[in-house]
Design brief:
Blueprint lengths: L6 E4 L8 E8 L4 E4 L4 E6 L8 E6 L1 E3 L3 E3 L2 H26 L4 H5 L1 H6 L1 H24 L1
Antiparallel strand pairs: 1-2, 1-7, 2-3, 3-6, 4-5
């Protein structure tokens, strides 16, 4: 649910992919104002208290065109993806450290070790699920 003060990303329009903070919400019309996005020019008439002129201000955007951004989830996702990447790289280095690149890319190597390569391909999902379970418990 989008609330005032949360960070959102604009999905469509002239300000597509811009991020900003919600500064006002119109629940009746399902619209929100996002800081420094959907800027419009407003002509202000001169009064005794205020000077007139052309002022740029934020306009409302429909809530369906906004996506809530969770900074904490973004950092956690990045951490787990980097961890998974380093585990896979270390596993590959462990398996293929005695071989050169030309040996690994040769047809004979692939033909002779096709079972091991398929096992490695299928074990990625198993490894990922084990890591996910371990880190959710911890």
């Amino acid at each position: 649910m989008i609330k005032k003060g949360l960070k959102v990303k604009v999905l469509v329009g002239k300000d597509k992919n811009k991020e900003g903070e919600v500064i006002e919400i119109d629940r009746a019309n399902n619209r929100a104002k996002v800081k420094e996005t959907n800027m419009v020019k407003k002509h202000i008439k001169t009064t005794k208290e205020k000077k007139g002129g052309i002022v740029s201000k934020e306009s409302f955007i429909h809530i369906s065109n906004l996506k809530l951004i969770d900074e904490k989830a973004k950092k956690i996702k990045l951490f787990f993806s980097l961890l998974y990447f380093f585990i896979i790289i270390s596993f590959l280095l462990l398996i293929f450290s005695k071989l050169s690149i030309s040996d690994i890319s040769s047809y004979e190597f692939i033909k002779n070790n096709i079972d091991k390569l398929y096992f490695f391909k299928n074990s990625n999902l198993i490894l990922l699920s084990i890591l996910f379970i371990l880190f959710t418990i911890i």
